[in-house]
Amino acid sequence: MKEICENIYKKSRKSAGLEQIEAADKLGVSARSLQNYESELNVTLPPLDIVRNMCILYNDKGLAYKHIKKSPIGEFIPDFSEQPSLTVATLAMISDFNKMQGMIAKIVEVAKDGIIDDSETDAWKEICNIANNLLESLNSLVNSKEASVSVD
């Protein structure tokens, strides 16, 4: 149970194999500040520049997403699953992409008049559901552990 509730910043740092004092030094923050960010109570959210530096230092781009999900606007961002292996993420993305391709005619039919009327609501919900699944699988693919390379 403890692992499920573990603080995202602490989990990311530990995955990177860094001790708290070493990480604080490399991030340019006090050990106390990092300790506050990593608190199980998580009273203090780190500023964006610190989170950016954590993502770089810990080699964990997914931490940025998790940080935003914890923010007040996080409720508006879709939930993405944990990072699967590169193979699983690739196969899931291809499957979801194929489903989305199969929806193109329906998307055109619903959207061609620029209005989603009552008779099209269910079709549009289905389209949105498949599109969200594709977004999730693309996110998983891009952020899979094996794909952690710089694409800048």
What structural category do the secondary elements indicate?
Answer: mainly alpha
CATH homologous superfamily (4th level) name of the largest domain: lambda repressor-like DNA-binding domains
Largest sheet: none
What percent of residues are in strands?
A: under 5%
Q: Cα distance, first to last residue?
A: 37 Å
CATH class membership of the largest domain = Mainly Alpha
Describe the protein's architecture and organization.
This protein is mainly alpha-helical and 152 residues long. The protein folds into two domains: 2-76, 434 Repressor (Amino-terminal Domain) (Orthogonal Bundle), CATH 1.10.260; 86-147. Helix content is 61%, strand content 0%. α7 (86-101) runs antiparallel to α9. The protein is elongated, with a radius of gyration of 19 Å.
